[in-house]
Design goal:
By secondary structure, this protein is mainly alpha-helical. It contains 26 helices and four strands.
Length: 509
């Protein structure tokens, strides 16, 4: 692999050719159009319903995550209302931006048109990035922040202009307001500085200014955490223990190749790691990948947590491979390029078939639902609303006059709050995640429709419970709602006073 220690500042035309911009923007536009065309096909995901609910109760923090994602969702609600395509537009924009920035990273690392297009196409047709455009998730924005941080670090190292730390600090601050796992990436940045010649920046005032910017942005959420006894930290401990216990952290290394990046481009990313380690200028970036990878592996994190590091590896691998290919005979070069692009596109087609709701019926839809649990979770919410409304309508007038709905699952809670008004359902009562902070009605209801609990759990909390309906869907799609808590009950008042119940039954759902 050729050395990249030459002065790349002189090798890169500072004016991006229009054709290169056209390639990157066209690629991002095609992926965005694909999402826009398919994102309204099913329904909301359970997680999206939680974000929507929290968006109606904005705060500087939430039990399950920082405030950025509900804040963006609040903007979406103001612009689009309850539109699947509209609310997911921000995730689509984030993915499209990550594709373009990946190509720009390849350019900054000395890559020409081939390298930029290869790196961008690799990320556009990778599993996790493709998924991030299908739903409104905090990981959609977290992914973009990781990519932008890498891009700004590359600009810093190439230009040796320490003012880039301000841009890095700005994005790190936004990332801290989005998903706390960014601290593992921060560890990689600091380790990368210490283990490379970038350590000189530890003594630079602009580095500390960047830290100050990040902390200033994060400060409101930190104060919220302090006020709430760092409840999010305890929540994350609970979720991590659950994930490990349920085996969700298994297959971490396999997920790097299957989910985080296009399988055919794994050698390209490995070449990127090697090239970065061999580069005195850019060695810091290799550690920005290796350190989070090791930390998540030994801490038993889920495989997709480091997906945001692969664009920078693909960018360096593409730039280095382009220089290597330039030294090959024309037939050999064209053969390798043809095999690579054919494989990347073929794997990308499989990714699209699994990840996207390409069809509303037929074999392609069945294939997606069989292999994608997240798509299955988008089905059945309107039927649940109709079922709950039917149970309400079946109650005698005296029970309907003091009726409440309680949900022990955050998806069901969000569905009742966001979709329920169309059926004139009351605001739900919940104890999951941040729902318990919102309290219960005064006076409290004496009749409750109870979702998300087993019969034993309902009887242990409430009085006089009876089975009143089932949570499912007419298509027979098996998902968490239809399998894990399919029964709906009508119950009387809780066995304990409401104030005691609220204290004793707080739940990290």
């Amino acid at each position: 692999m050729p050395s990249i220690e030459r002065d790349q500042s002189s090798a890169i035309d500072e004016t991006q050719p229009r054709t290169e911009w056209a390639i990157l923007l066209s690629m991002a536009a095609v992926i965005a159009a694909l999402h826009i065309a398919t994102n309204g096909r099913y329904g909301f995901h359970r997680d999206e319903l939680q974000f929507l609910s929290d968006a109606r109760h904005l705060d500087w923090g939430f039990v399950a995550y920082p405030p950025m994602t509900p804040f963006i969702e609040r903007i979406g609600l103001s612009l689009f209302g309850l539109s699947l395509v509209g609310l997911r537009m921000f995730s689509v924009i984030a993915q499209a931006a990550a594709i373009v920035v990946t190509g720009l990273m390849a350019r900054e690392l000395g890559g020409g048109r081939l390298a930029q297009g290869s790196a961008a196409l690799t990320i556009a047709l990778s599993g996790l990035p493709m998924f991030e455009g299908t739903e409104f998730q905090y990981s959609s924005f977290d992914y973009l922040w990781w990519v932008l941080i890498a891009y700004f670090v590359i600009r810093l190292l190439r230009s040796e202009n320490p003012r880039w730390w301000l841009a890095i600090g700005l994005v790190v601050g936004l990332a801290l307001l989005t998903k706390y796992s960014i601290v593992f990436y921060i560890a990689g940045i600091l380790a990368g500085m210490a283990l490379s010649r970038a350590r000189r920046f530890f003594l630079d005032v602009w580095f500390w200014a960047g830290i100050a910017v990040a902390l200033l942005i994060f400060l409101p959420n930190f104060l919220w955490l302090l006020h709430h006894d760092f409840i999010s930290y305890r929540f994350l401990q609970h979720i991590h223990a659950r994930d490990v216990g349920e085996g969700r952290a298994d297959g971490f290394l396999k997920d790097q190749a299957i989910i985080c990046v296009n399988l055919i481009a794994v050698p390209l990313c490995l070449a990127g790691v090697v090239a970065l380690l061999r580069s005195a200028r850019y060695r810091m970036i290799a550690w920005m990948y290796l350190v989070p990878l090791a930390l998540f592996f030994f801490a038993k994190g889920r495989g997709y947590y480091v997906a945001g590091t692969y664009p920078m590896l693909a960018a360096m691998g593409a730039a280095a491979s382009e220089r290597w290919l330039a030294g090959l005979p024309g037939l050999g070069r064209r053969t390798i390029e043809g095999v690579f692009f054919t494989g990347v596109v073929a794997w990308g087609a499989l990714v699209c078939a699994v990840t996207l709701p390409l069809a509303s019926s037929g074999p392609l839809r069945d294939f997606a639902l069989r292999n994608n649990g997240d798509l299955r979770e988008e089905i059945g919410w309107d039927e649940l609303m109709r079922t709950v409304a039917g149970i309400r309508d079946s109650l005698p007038p005296d029970q309907r006059s003091s009726l409440g709905i309680t949900a022990a699952n955050y998806g069901e809670f969000g569905a009742i709050e966001m979709l329920g008004p169309a059926y004139h359902l009351p605001v739900p009562i919940g104890t999951t995640n941040s729902e318990w902070l919102r309290g219960y009605p005064d006076p409290p209801p004496t009749t409750l429709i109870v979702l998300g609990l087993s019969k034993e759990e309902a009887d242990s909390i409430f009085t006089g419970c009876r089975l009143a309906g089932h949570n499912g869907n007419a298509e027979g799609i098996k998902n968490e709602e239809s399998q894990d808590h399919p029964d709906i009950f009508v119950c009387g008042p809780p066995r304990l006073p409401w104030v005691v119940l609220w204290k004793d039954h707080q739940d990290f759902g």
